[in-house]
Amino acid sequence: LAGKYGAAALRYRLRRGIPDEDVAVGVGVMAQVDAESGGVACSRNPLDLSDDCVHIESAWGLSKTVAEGVGDSDQFTVRRVDGVAQAVAASVGHKPYMYVCEPREGTSRYESTEERADSPSLTEEQAVELARLARTLEQAQGGPVDLEWVLDGRGTFNILRCRPLTPGHVRGQAPARRVQAPGQALITARAAAAPGVGCGPVCFVRQNADMASFPEGAVLVTVNALPKWGALLDRASAVITEHGSP
After folding, report:
1. pLDDT by residue (tens digit) across 3-58?
2. Which residues contact 13 (CB under 8 A, 6 or more apart)?
3. What share of the chain is helix, strand, coil (3-state, %, to 5)?
């Protein structure tokens, strides 16, 4: 019921003229997986579908950390050599906390130990196994897929979501627009979630109330890449977040 009156849901209804009394509330009941680690996997590069490497984002505990952009993650890139999947690149992020499912409290956040925070949440063998699963599902679906997954304590991968991968960019279709920068770049060499160039006044969004005053064409700057900020994408010229996976 609270979700029906969340900022993103209210904004969606208001922009589309949907009366409150026309919106029903559904309640889903699902079993929780006792997750050792979790995250998101794309069977191809979301920014370039001609790149057939499997891209994996992973963190300790439930996949909430990665899927909802609330923290940093490990990144694995797996490609095939002569038809056999091989992990070719791994980048281990600093993961200071993790989400676990408690029997009474529900989803709870815990601080990671210093050693675990900087340890990879998947082994290379597990990354290769997950990549094989992603490619199998891609073949079954008839196109690139975006997966949410968790690895349980028995070492079994559980697929929580499988949907068509929406590409952010296809090579050769980038806009041929040049922009002259007025000064030196303040931030470089960071992970790009989507290509292109945007400019505008910087607007910090820290809480729901900030969404109402977000101006058209501004650059959205926030700490975490939370899904609720997606309601501002049609008004923002660019997005910068401190944490979260591409």
Report:
1. 888 888 888 899 999 999 999 888 888 788 889 999 999 998 887 777 889 999 99
2. 19, 20, 23
3. 20, 30, 50
